[in-house]
Amino acid sequence: MQVSFLIDWKREFFRKIFYFLFVLVLFGFFTPAFSVSEEEEERLLEKALVESAVTPAQKLAVANYLKATAIAKRNRANELRELAKLSRGEKFLHAQARKEKLHRMAESLERQADRHEATLKELPTQNH
């Protein structure tokens, strides 16, 4: 009787451990599926900011913010492109990977700046 109790206890213990690890692994796999990228989060915040601007002063402030942000992102994109042109004495594959990464970052910033400018053009038409 005592032996069967120990076997049942061990079986139950390992079942709980296995269940816990299974849930932990599932949580680890599905967490990225529910996450939001920084670019998407920024876009949603800007959308909320634009939609909440009601008075002319608020709209002017949002327009100034969007204009300044678009200019800053375009400037940073140009800086990244210039950095990609520079050689740092790296091996060829490392230099190519660095250039591609910098170009991707610059393209992303350009898309964001384009989005800011498109939002800026739509802002005055939202008068109620």
TrEMBL record:
Residues 107-128 are annotated as: Disordered. It comes from Leptospira stimsonii. NCBIfam families: LIC10421_LIC12816_fam, LIC_10421_fam. This is Uncharacterized protein. Residues 107-120 have a biased composition (Basic and acidic residues). The lineage of its organism: Bacteria, Pseudomonadati, Spirochaetota, Spirochaetia, Leptospirales. It comes from the Bacteria.
